[in-house]
Design the sequence.
C-alpha cells in the first residue's frame, strides 16, 4: 500500500470514528446541523462569497449554496473531496489553509481545523485567512486532547491573541454558539480602538452581572442542597447503622448457634465422662442434703450469688472507641474563583523572564497578572513593558525602588479578585498550581492564607529544611526539571493541607475576606521586606483565620538576586527584632518549634526524600516486567497484615505495568468484599481446583499461606511456565501445636514442590525456614503502605493538651501475640499513671469469649476489629504503640504506627529487628521478661525527649520501606533481573 492509499484509508477511518459520537457522513443528522449553521450565517452576516477552509465532505458549502451564497471549499483530504456529491465537486478542491487562496471572500469559515496543525503553523494559517477576508468565523476545540491528530489544542484566548496580531478582534455582539460553544466571529478592526474597548467592557459588564446573579442563585441552591444533603446524610447514616446492627445481630446469633452446638456436644461428652458421672452423683447428693425450695437450698443459692457478684466486680468492660476511616479528598477540578497573581520586580531579568514564562505556561483562567516594577534597570523595564502589552497584564512602575512591602501593597490594592497571590519574581511554577492552591483554600472556610512546598522556602522546603544551621537550598536532582519534581510531589501527596503558624511569603495567596478584615502588609515596620509575611500571618491568626500549606504544590524558588546575601541577612535580623517587639518572642518561638518538629510536616519532608527513588524503581519495574501476568492465591476473609501487604505490593506492581489478580475461595467472597469494598484489583473466586485451569493465563502463580502451596501442585508446567512461587509471610508452623496435622502440613509446605520459588520479608523468617526445613528463601525486605500510614492533621487536641495515648493490638485467641502479658502491662500503666495516660486496644471485639480471661479490670478503650483506613486513623491519634508478641515475622502494625508518628516497642525475637533500632527509632524488648516490657513502657511515658526523638527518627526510617521496592524485588525473584 503506497502513502496515498494509507492516507485515504486513515481519512476514511477518521471520518468514521474521529468526529464525535456518530460517523461524519452525508446523513440527515449532519445535513440538519449544517443547514442550521448556514441559516445563522446568512441571517447574521449576510455574505455573498464564503470559503469553508477545511470543508471535509462539503456539507456547509452545500447548505450555503442552497441558500444562494457563492460558497466554495478546500480540504487537505483527497478522500473527503472524492466522497462528496458530484454536483458539489466544482466548488471544492484539495488545498491547504497555509497556501494562498485564489480570491478574497466576504467570509472565511474554519471549523475545528487549526488544532490539527502544529503550533508553529497556527500563526501563518490565521495570517493567510486574514489576508483574504475581513471576517473569519472560527472554531477550534479547547478540550479534546485525546484525538491523536490534535497537535495544538488551545484555549480561546490563544486564538484571539493570534487574530489580534493581524488586527482582527472578536465581535462580542455576535453569538457564534450555534456552531460550537467556543466559536467566535473575528472582524478586521476598522472601528476606533475606544469603540472596541467599549464593546468589550459592555459585554464584560453584562457577563459580570450575570455571573453575580448566578452566584447568588447558586449560593441559595447550595444552601438548600446542603440542608437536604444533611437530611439525607442523617437518614443514610440511620439506615446504615440499622443495617450494621442487623448484620451484627445476625453474626452474633450465628456465633451463639455455633457456641450452643459446641456446648451441647461438650456437655454430652461431659455427661458420659467419669467426671460427669461424679458430678451427677454430687448433684443427687445436693438434692438430698438441700432439697429444692428448702431453707438450706436458699442459703446455698445466696452464697453462690455473692461469689459470682464479687468475681464480676473485679472485671470492668472496656469503653467502646469508634474509629472513623481515613478518607481521600475528591479529585482535583479546575478552579472557579478568580485569582490575581501579583509579581513585584526589581532587576534580576533572567529570573523574571523564567518566572513569567512559567506563569503564562501553567496558569489557567480565571486569573490575571499584576506586575509591579520597583525601580528596575532599563533592560528589565523594556522587557516588562513588552510582556505586559503582549499578555494583557497590568503594569505598575516605580521610578525608584521603594522596597518589597510597599510594592506588594500597591499590587494588593489594585487587586479585586477572590484571591490575591504574591509571587516572588525568582520562582518557577508548574502545572495545575493555581487549581491546587485554590483547592487547598476552599477545603476550609477559615483558611485565609495558603502557600506551597518548595526547594528553598524556610519551613516549606523539601526534602530538607536546614543544613549546618542555615536554610537548605535543595537543588533539583540531576536530570529532573521543575515540572518533573512538581509532578512527583503532586502524585505522592496525600493533600493533607496542614495548618501552620507561619508561612513563607515567596508564594503567598490571600483570601479577599482576609484583606477586607485586617488590611495590607505593615509598611511602617517591614517596608524593605523580610518579616512582613510572618507579621501578616500572625495578624490573620489573631483575627481567626488559618494559614495552610498546599502540600501537593511545588514552586521552585531560585533565591532572588534582587538582594545580596549580606543585605538579606541584615534585613532578616532586623525583621526578627521587630516581630518580637510587635507580637512577643514566645509566639514566634512556639511557631518555629511547631514548623521544625511537627509530625505532619516531618512526614511530608520524609516522604519527599524518597519520591525520586520510588519513581526510579517504578520505571525499572516497567522496563523489566511490563506485560507480565501474576496471580496471588489469597484465601482470606478479614483485613489483616499479611493480606494487606500482598494487596499493597500487587498495586505497586500494577504501576509497573504488571497485570496482577487475586484468587480467593468462593465461600469467602461476601466477607472479603465487605473487608475490601474499594479494592482496585481484579479478584477471581472459585474452588481450589480452579487454580490449575487459571494458571495457563499467568506467568507466575504465588501461594501466600501454607495450604495454598498444595493448590500449586496440580498446575501443569510447560518450559518452566508458570513460575510457582510461595510468599512466605512467617514461619507458619509456630501458629499450631507441635505434632498436629496442621503443624506438619505447614512444615511440609516449604519443600512440597522442587521448583518452588520462595521469598519472604525478613532475615528472621529466612533463618527459621532454613533451620527447620533446609529450604532457602529470597529476602525481599520489609514494606508498608507509606502513602496511607503517615502523619495526618489531628482532629482534636494533641499532647500535651490531652493525655498520652498508648495503643496495642490485642487478640485473645492468638497465643504468640501474648494478649495476657499485653493487658497486664497496660493495666499497670493505668494504675500507676491514671489520667496522665489514655489506653486503647484493637484487634478483637467486646464479645470475644477469651477476652474475659485477660486482666481487663482497668480504664481502657476498645476500638474493635479495624480495616487499614481505620488503623491509619487510630495510629495518628496515639503517641505510643506496644507489641509484646513472643515473636513477629515482620511486625507490620508496629511499622504502621511508626510511619504515623508513634513511638513503638517491638519484640526482640522475630523480624521487627530488620527495621527497629533500639534507642534510635524504637525500643526493642525481650518479651519473655514482663519487667523488661514494663520498664520500656515507663521510659516512653516519663521521658518526653526520648519518646519524641524516637518518633521523629522512625518517621524517616520507615519511609525507606515503600511498597514499590518490595514489589520490584518480588518480580526480580520470580522472573530474574534481566526479564
Sequence:
Amino acid at each position: 500500500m503506497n502513502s496515498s492509499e494509507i492516507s485515504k484509508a486513515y481519512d476514511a477511518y477518521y471520518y468514521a470514528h474521529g468526529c464525535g459520537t456518530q460517523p461524519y457522513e452525508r446523513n440527515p443528522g449532519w445535513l440538519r446541523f449544517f443547514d442550521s449553521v448556514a441559516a445563522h450565517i446568512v441571517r447574521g452576516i449576510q455574505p455573498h462569497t464564503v470559503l469553508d477552509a477545511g470543508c471535509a465532505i462539503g456539507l456547509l458549502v452545500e447548505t450555503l449554496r442552497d441558500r444562494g451564497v457563492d460558497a466554495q471549499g478546500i480540504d487537505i483530504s483527497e478522500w473527503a473531496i472524492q466522497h462528496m456529491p458530484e454536483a458539489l465537486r466544482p466548488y471544492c478542491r484539495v488545498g491547504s489553509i497555509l497556501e494562498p487562496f485564489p480570491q478574497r471572500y466576504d467570509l472565511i469559515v474554519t471549523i475545528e481545523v487549526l488544532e490539527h496543525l502544529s503550533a508553529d503553523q497556527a500563526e501563518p494559517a490565521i495570517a493567510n485567512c486574514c489576508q483574504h477576508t475581513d471576517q473569519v468565523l472560527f472554531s477550534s476545540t479547547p478540550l479534546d486532547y485525546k484525538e491523536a491528530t490534535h497537535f495544538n489544542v488551545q484555549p480561546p484566548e490563544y486564538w484571539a491573541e493570534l487574530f489580534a496580531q493581524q488586527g482582527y478582534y472578536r465581535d462580542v455582539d455576535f453569538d457564534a454558539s450555534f456552531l460550537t460553544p467556543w466559536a467566535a466571529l473575528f472582524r478586521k478592526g476598522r472601528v476606533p480602538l475606544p469603540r472596541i474597548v467599549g464593546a468589550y467592557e459592555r459585554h464584560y459588564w453584562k457577563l459580570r452581572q450575570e455571573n453575580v446573579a448566578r452566584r447568588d442563585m447558586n449560593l441559595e441552591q447550595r444552601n438548600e442542597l446542603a440542608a437536604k444533603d444533611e437530611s439525607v446524610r442523617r437518614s443514610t447514616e440511620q439506615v446504615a447503622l440499622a443495617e450494621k446492627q442487623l448484620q451484627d445481630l445476625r453474626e452474633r446469633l450465628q456465633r451463639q448457634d455455633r457456641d450452643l452446638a459446641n456446648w451441647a456436644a461438650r456437655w454430652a461428652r461431659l455427661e458420659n465422662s467419669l467426671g460427669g458421672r461424679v458430678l451427677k452423683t454430687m448433684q443427687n447428693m445436693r438434692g438430698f442434703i438441700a432439697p429444692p425450695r428448702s431453707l438450706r437450698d436458699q442459703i446455698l443459692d445466696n452464697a453462690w450469688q455473692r461469689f459470682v457478684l464479687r468475681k464480676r466486680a473485679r472485671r470492668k468492660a472496656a469503653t467502646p472507641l469508634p474509629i472513623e476511616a481515613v478518607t481521600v479528598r475528591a479529585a482535583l477540578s479546575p478552579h472557579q474563583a478568580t485569582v490575581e497573581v501579583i509579581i513585584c520586580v526589581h532587576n534580576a531579568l533572567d529570573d523574571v523572564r523564567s518566572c513569567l514564562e512559567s506563569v503564562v505556561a501553567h496558569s489557567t483562567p480565571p486569573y490575571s497578572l499584576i506586575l509591579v516594577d520597583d525601580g528596575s534597570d532599563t533592560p528589565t523595564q523594556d522587557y516588562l513593558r513588552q510582556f505586559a502589552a503582549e499578555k494583557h497584564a497590568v503594569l505598575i512602575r516605580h521610578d525608584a525602588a521603594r522596597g518589597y512591602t510597599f510594592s506588594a501593597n500597591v499590587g494588593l490594592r489594585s487587586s479585586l479578585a477572590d484571591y490575591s497571590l504574591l509571587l516572588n519574581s525568582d520562582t518557577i511554577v508548574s502545572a495545575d498550581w493555581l487549581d491546587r492552591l485554590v483547592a487547598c483554600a476552599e477545603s476550609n472556610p477559615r483558611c485565609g492564607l495558603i502557600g506551597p512546598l518548595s526547594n528553598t522556602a524556610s519551613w516549606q522546603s523539601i526534602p530538607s529544611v536546614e543544613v549546618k544551621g542555615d536554610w537548605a537550598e535543595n537543588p533539583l536532582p540531576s536530570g529532573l526539571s521543575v515540572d518533573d519534581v512538581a509532578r512527583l510531589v503532586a502524585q505522592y501527596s496525600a493533600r493533607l493541607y496542614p495548618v501552620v503558624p507561619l508561612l513563607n511569603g515567596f508564594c503567598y495567596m490571600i483570601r479577599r475576606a482576609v484583606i477586607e478584615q485586617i488590611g495590607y502588609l505593615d509598611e511602617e515596620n517591614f517596608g524593605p521586606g523580610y518579616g512582613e509575611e510572618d507579621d501578616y500571618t500572625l495578624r490573620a491568626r489573631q483575627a481567626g483565620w488559618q494559614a495552610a500549606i498546599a502540600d501537593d504544590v511545588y514552586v521552585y524558588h531560585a533565591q532572588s538576586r534582587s538582594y545580596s546575601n549580606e543585605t538579606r541577612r541584615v534585613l532578616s535580623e532586623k525583621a526578627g527584632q521587630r516581630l518580637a517587639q510587635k507580637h512577643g518572642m514566645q509566639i514566634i518561638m512556639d511557631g518555629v518549634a511547631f514548623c521544625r518538629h511537627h509530625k505532619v510536616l516531618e512526614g511530608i519532608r520524609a516522604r519527599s526524600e524518597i519520591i525520586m527513588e520510588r519513581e526510579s524503581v517504578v520505571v525499572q519495574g516497567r522496563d523489566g516486567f511490563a506485560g507480565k501476568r501474576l496471580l496471588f492465591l489469597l484465601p482470606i476473609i478479614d483485613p489483616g497484615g499479611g493480606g494487606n501487604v500482598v494487596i499493597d505490593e500487587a498495586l505497586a506492581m500494577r504501576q509497573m505495568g504488571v497485570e496482577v489478580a487475586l484468587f480467593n475461595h468462593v465461600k469467602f467472597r461476601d466477607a472479603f468484599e465487605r473487608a475490601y469494598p474499594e479494592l482496585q484489583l481484579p479478584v477471581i473466586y472459585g474452588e481450589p481446583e480452579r487454580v490449575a485451569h487459571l494458571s495457563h493465563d499467568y506467568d507466575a502463580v504465588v501461594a501466600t499461606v501454607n495450604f495454598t502451596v498444595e493448590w500449586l501442585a496440580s498446575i501443569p508446567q510447560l518450559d518452566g511456565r508458570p513460575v510457582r512461587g510461595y510468599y512466605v509471610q512467617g514461619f507458619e508452623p509456630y501458629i499450631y501445636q507441635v505434632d498436629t496435622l496442621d503443624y506438619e502440613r505447614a512444615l511440609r509446605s516449604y519443600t512440597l514442590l522442587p521448583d518452588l520459588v520462595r521469598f519472604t520479608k525478613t532475615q528472621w523468617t529466612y533463618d527459621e525456614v532454613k533451620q527447620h526445613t533446609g529450604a532457602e528463601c529470597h529476602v525481599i525486605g520489609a514494606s508498608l503502605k507509606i502513602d496511607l500510614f503517615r502523619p495526618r492533621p489531628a482532629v482534636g487536641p494533641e499532647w500535651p493538651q490531652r493525655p498520652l495515648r498508648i495503643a496495642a493490638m490485642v487478640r485473645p485467641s492468638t497465643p504468640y501475640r501474648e494478649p495476657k502479658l499485653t493487658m497486664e502491662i497496660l493495666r499497670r500503666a493505668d494504675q500507676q499513671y491514671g489520667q496522665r495516660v489514655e489506653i486503647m486496644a484493637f484487634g478483637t471485639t467486646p464479645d470475644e469469649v477469651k477476652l474475659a480471661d485477660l486482666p481487663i479490670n482497668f480504664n481502657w478503650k476498645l476500638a474493635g476489629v479495624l480495616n487499614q483506613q481505620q488503623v491509619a486513623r487510630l495510629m495518628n491519634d496515639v503517641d505510643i504503640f506496644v507489641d509484646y508478641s513472643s515473636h513477629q515475622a515482620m511486625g507490620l502494625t508496629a511499622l504502621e504506627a511508626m510511619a504515623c508518628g508513634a513511638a513503638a516497642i517491638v519484640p526482640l525475637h522475630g523480624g521487627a529487628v530488620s527495621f527497629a533500632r533500639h534507642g534510635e527509632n524504637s525500643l526493642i524488648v525481650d518479651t519473655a521478661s514482663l519487667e523488661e516490657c514494663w520498664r520500656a513502657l515507663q521510659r516512653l511515658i516519663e521521658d518526653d525527649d526520648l519518646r519524641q526523638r524516637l518518633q521523629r527518627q522512625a518517621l524517616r526510617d520507615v519511609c525507606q520501606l515503600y511498597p514499590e521496592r518490595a514489589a520490584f524485588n518480588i518480580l526480580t525473584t520470580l522472573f530474574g533481573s534481566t526479564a
Q: What stands out?
A: The chain has four domains: 3-190, 339-597, 613-779, 804-961. Residues 339-597 form a domain with the Spore Coat Polysaccharide Biosynthesis Protein SpsA; Chain A fold (CATH 3.90.550.10). The CA atoms of residues 116 and 150 lie 5 Å apart. The two ends are 37 Å apart (CA to CA).
